From TrEMBL, chains A, B:
Keywords: Membrane, Transmembrane, Transmembrane helix. It is found in: Membrane. This is SulP family sulfate permease. GO terms for cellular component: membrane. Its main location: membrane. PANTHER family: SULFATE TRANSPORTER (PTHR11814). Residues 461-574 form the STAS domain.
Length: 583, 583
């Protein structure tokens, strides 16, 4: 059953921009412009930093923050989602492209562009063919574990910039050992800049807001001003490097960033490269979509607005294709920036388009100023941003709630840290599915008896109930399908095989929403085996849709017993079993 | 919940032979001996033929029919399962080993031995760690489709022997095109032998039994005599080739078969080879186990005997390891032979051990007689045997019953025919799992209302029921888990977002057997979003185990509404909603 559809024209469904532009007015424009200014200030240092994290030139971070935002404004359904480079996707880009080319080469950048294109293509196809359900295979605990482990990996990967040393690695062990072996070459000035920036940014997060509020700012305004912390850090450290000529004393700087609007680029059409990048692109698409749609839905609900997940796929896909043709790399909706956009009062996706204009102006005018920007500053902004992603409480929550979920999240964290993002998230998905199938493959089956004086049937092991030696009633608390069909066969056969007086077995199906072909054949096998032992098989409380389907098979014609509407009917009818010969 | 355990000693559980030997007597011995003679007569031509199918020398078929049978008699739990080479596993062996070495080489045979060892190891490990549930991932329709397609592939692959030409291929297209391109080289005498044998064997199947019965034999005896048809064909065609010296006129013959008991062999310890063969060994293990345990259970139920699936894994694993150390190749329980064994009156696994003695005698005494046996005769026995596996009725059955199952079976058949056994069965498994997750990811959700004058709630779209504008009740007919958590979020949010008077949403959970962490977080998200809209979320009819788990989380503390024991309680309590301000 699909959710109720709104009756808009197909065109508006595929181009959400047609909806909100109809009522666009001066007030909306003002709100959107204010939000755009604030998000732009936040996005400039972030886009440079995440490009660094992805192993790409700084300008590609800016390019990824221009056209993709415009594309999302046209195709996306969220009013406030702020699209652009984000930490986790940048790390995944580095992991995917790092297998194919060396950082700093033209091949590396070309592969990142192709990755964005592929990822966009996958998202658009998923949207048009309504394959958004594929994202469901990522369970919440797996995502939470993956994000936490990614945060740790990202922060660790940035420590080299803080110490001003070389270090490489795609997992925690490689990163840490590479870092430790190079610590002797630490550049003291770089380290001072890096550590001071980290400390400053943490203070901005925790200490600045109270200070601003005591100076008379309103809480919301204080919040927004605090978001400008990274810009201040960028400005101060850049000026320091320029003033004291620190670049010549070993402080790594961003260097020349080309001035101008994004170039027109094309993805590679090399099918071998597509093959190599496909799985990475799929993972990036799905992770990006899941993270993005979740924040979009949460923010939309606050204003009783509606998100269309399949159209969101198209919107994010269009953004990534836009990134690929304008020198960018994979993007998605960012959590922190979207919340800022929402809090700053953005009312329509136009705010995103205005942000794009802001970043374009930065690319045109500000890039010469970035020459002396130390990489340590960017690394510090990344570290402070991603440490807020690290949250081990999911381990405690799942431990208390469900060991299966705990296993999935613990494995995802360990595998991501130990073997990198792609192994971690793939293993998490497979483990979630495997554990779910395992769980449902051994369903809860209760043997039930009549609660005296009522028409209710309860577990014989938990309640004082009436039973009869000739009658076994099994309540199956699970859908019957291939993964538990054999279990049912074994269970029923085992229950009756050594118990001579039994003449009737009733399967109580009140919690069975589905009987697939495998389970149907297992039921047939059980029926024939019971029949060989002189036992009849009955069903009770079969749900309507399940019964409709059973009627389309031959099972009911061959059934040795009956189908009872209620378990009490079965109890009453089988109360005086006909005299039968032993088989 | 595990099935009730019998209280036998652990030793007897792991060595079932200790159980049945305790009561072994003269009557049992006679029955077992008779069955063993009949199965031996059936097994001699089959073991030679299946070795040919696997691309192995004929004697390896005999070797695979000696020690493995003894091993199963010690470790297996079925009284009547006839272990040995079977058609589908032989084809899978050819597919797996054919990637690694050329047929006829020592490497090819060594790889087959290693495959048997690996497969045995996998089965034993699955048995000891109770991983038999892994076999559940093969749904019945996928197996049925796979067996049908394999039968077609096998029969087609044997046509080259009937025509006496060379042809190769691992899928139907390769096989047919290779065959057609070589048809010009058909050896007429070979073809006459082959076609005549096929015709004779079909007649034996269909026409001989009525003839024998009209000659006064009892039906069961007539059946058993008819099983000797292949032996007669082998004898007659071998004598014909010898008499008329047909070997020199291009009829391919088996040639020299070494005389003697099986040699002691060892698998390769090359870990690279293990890596290459692992997936094939896993597929062979699982397919072999599933086919074998199913026939074992069906036959056991007819005599009220019990099969222990986990111990069956150990039994089949021991058989394969035995095959590996005695010059054999992968084996499993054969369907047709087991039924013959059962019908012939086998009472204990000793019948299998006696069959092993029979085959050992054949290997010692009869191999010189096999020199002139034409390969066309063996191919004919294979073709006639496997065509009984081909059964397209599963397509019709699933089409009527469930399109999801139909899709899985159709894809398995097409992919097996088009890309070979390994691709076919792997794709079938993945498709079954994917389709199941897809199905449960879009669960049936019904909006329900009160049937007037009762306490029952029914779907508002199907029944005349009472509803209230302020109250929405959704009955969820599925477990809530990661694959449908997002669906639930979307569904509930969509339902209420444009419907202003709603103040209360009740989720009716009578068919929900499980709420995993993802679904719990989705419920929390839904609750918060509803709360932002001024709507309370309630639950009703939550099952005991689900409630126990919810109590271990914070969800119930934060729940904006209540948990009602019955839906009617919810209806009554929410009948006069308190005056609320719009949000």
């Amino acid at each position: 059953m699909t959710p109720p559809k709104l009756t808009r024209a197909a065109l508006e469904r595929h181009l959400p921009i047609l909806t909100w532009t109809k009522t666009y007015g001066r007030d909306t424009l003002t709100s959107d412009l204010v939000a755009a200014v604030i998000v732009t200030i936040m996005l400039i240092p972030q886009s440079l930093a995440y490009a660094l994290l992805a192993g790409l030139p700084a300008e590609m971070g800016l390019y990824a923050s221009i056209l993709p935002l415009v594309a999302y404004a046209i195709f996306g359904t969220s009013r406030v989602l702020a699209v652009g480079p984000v930490a986790v996707v940048s790390l995944m880009t580095a992991a995917a492209v790092g297998n194919m080319a060396l950082q700093g080469t033209a091949e590396y950048a070309a592969a990142a562009i192709t990755l964005a294109f592929l990822s966009g293509l996958i998202l658009v196809v998923m949207g048009l063919f309504r394959l958004g359900f594929l994202a469901n295979f990522l369970s919440h605990p797996v995502i939470a574990g993956f994000i936490t482990a990614s945060g740790i990996l990202i922060a660790t990967s940035q420590l080299k910039h803080i110490f001003g040393v070389e270090a490489e690695g795609h997992n925690l062990i490689e990163l840490v050992s590479s870092l430790v072996s190079h610590l002797g070459q630490t550049n003291i000035i770089t380290m001072i800049i890096g550590v001071a920036t980290v400390a400053f940014l943490f203070w901005v997060r925790k200490g600045l807001k109270p200070l601003l509020m005591s100076a008379g700012l309103k809480p919301r305004m204080a919040d927004i001003v605090a978001k400008a912390g990274p810009v201040a850090a960028v400005a101060v450290t850049t000026i320091a490097v320029w003033l004291f000529n620190l670049g010549e004393r070993g402080v790594k700087i961003v260097g020349e960033v080309p001035t101008g609007l994004p170039p027109l680029t094309m993805p590679s059409w090399d099918l071998d490269m597509w093959g190599t990048l496909f799985v990475s692109a799929l993972l990036i698409s799905v992770i990006g979509f899941v993270e993005s749609v979740s924040v979009a839905q949460t923010l939309a609900a606050k204003r009783r607005q509606r998100i269309v997940p399949d159209q969101e796929l198209v919107g994010l896909g269009a953004s990534n294709i836009a990134a690929a043709i304008s020198g960018g790399y994979p993007v998605t909706g960012g959590f922190a920036r979207s919340v800022v956009n929402f809090d700053a009062g953005a009312e329509t996706p136009a705010a995103g388009a205005f942000t794009a204009v802001g970043i374009a102006l930065a690319a045109l005018l500000l890039t010469p100023l970035l020459f002396f920007l130390p990489k340590a500053t960017l690394a510090a902004t990344i570290i402070v941003a991603v440490l807020s992603l690290v949250d081990f409480s999911i381990l405690k929550k799942t431990w208390g709630y469900s060991r299966v979920d705990f296993t999935a999240v613990a494995a995802t964290i360990l595998l991501t840290l130990g073997f990198g993002v792609e192994v971690g998230v793939s293993a998490g998905v497979m483990l979630s599915i495997g554990l779910f199938l395992y769980k449902t493959s051994r369903p809860h089956v209760a043997e039930v008896g009549l609660v005296p004086g009522t028409q209710h049937f309860r577990n014989i092991n938990r309640h004082e109930v009436e039973t009869r030696p000739s009658l076994v009633t099994l309540r199956i608390d699970e859908n019957l399908y291939f993964a538990n069909a054999r279990f049912l066969e074994d269970y029923v056969t085992d229950r009756v095989i050594c118990d001579e007086p039994i003449t009737d077995v009733v399967l109580m199906c009140s919690a069975v929403n589905e009987i697939d072909m495998s389970a149907l054949e297992s039921l047939e096998a059980v029926m024939h085996r019971l029949s060989d032992m002189g036992i009849r098989l009955h069903l009770s409380e079969v749900k309507g849709p399940v019964m409709d389907r059973l009627k389309r098979s031959h099972f009911l014609d061959e059934l040795t017993g009956e189908v009872f509407l209620s378990q009490f009917d079965a109890w009453a009818a089988l109360g005086n079993p006909p005299a039968r010969e032993a088989s």
